[in-house]
Write a structure and sequence with these properties.
Length: 253
């Protein structure tokens, strides 16, 4: 039987929760009794952890899960985030420091247990450690700084970031990488006439391939939606697709 996870009302129209792996989720929309309503619904995926290096400094992910190590003898069990030596490394969520260490291939490391989660987080190659074992920390709190200790002493400074469950390491990228919110077409622009410009591009399918030639100031009418595209009909009855970013209110007739 379905189990209620969250509910919204007129005072709260955004729901957020950490979805477990697998499973089916049902979204139920219900207007007031004896009334009708229209809804725009967005379902977005976002990482459940913050980024492990402070947003105040420039950083970039330079090595991914599974990349070969030691001439292919082993595989990378994490991601490497490159930043200037001494850049702040921060807590990705609220939690506690399980332990800190210094030695081995990781050099100066921090093991971190997020609150209410069944995985742990691993920071390695740190230059400094500002926390102690057992300490409670909050999201965004500085834990240490980027370095190149351990087997990274001959590489540019970077943070090795890992996520571990009871079954070992898993790919951490999806836990921290921001997902760009897609721009979806809106029902509010359906069944409206628009006038194209010299920059308007129409396509035979919603793939942005093989743009159709079209004179400026042509009239098009939106008739349906396909994700980030409107399907439109031209005055001669032919049909095409236009990206939601191409259709502005200034073009409306």
């Amino acid at each position: 039987n379905p189990r209620l996870i969250q509910a919204a009302d007129t005072s709260m129209n955004v729901l957020e929760f950490s979805a477990p792996a697998g499973g089916n989720f049902i979204v139920r929309l219900q207007p007031k009794m004896a009334s009708r309503g229209k809804y725009d619904l967005k379902i977005l995926l976002n990482p459940i952890l913050g980024f492990p290096i402070s947003s105040s400094v420039k950083s970039s992910i330079g090595s991914l899960w599974g990349d070969p190590r030691d001439a292919g003898v082993r595989k990378h069990e994490g991601i490497d985030i490159f930043a200037k030596k001494g850049s702040p490394v921060v807590a990705v969520t609220n939690g506690s420091i399980r332990r800190i260490g210094d030695g081995g291939i990781g050099g100066k490391v921090i093991w971190f247990n997020p609150d209410n989660e069944n995985f742990s987080v691993y920071y390695a190659h740190l230059d400094t450690q500002y926390v102690v074992s057992g300490q409670q920390v909050t999201k965004g709190q500085v834990l240490g700084t980027v370095g190149n200790t351990g087997n990274a002493k001959f590489t540019p400074a970077h943070l090795h970031f890992g996520v571990y469950t009871g079954n070992g390491a898993i790919d951490p990228l999806g836990f921290v990488k921001e997902i760009k919110e897609p721009v979806f077409a809106s029902n509010r622009k359906l069944n409206q006439w628009y006038k194209t410009t010299a920059k308007t591009k129409l396509y035979p399918s919603p793939l942005k391939k093989n743009a159709l030639s079209l004179p400026a100031m042509a009239r098009i009418k939106t008739i349906s939606i396909s994700n980030e595209f409107y399907r439109v009909v031209l005055e001669d009855g032919s049909k095409a697709f236009v990206s939601v970013n191409e259709l502005t209110d200034k073009m409306k007739l």
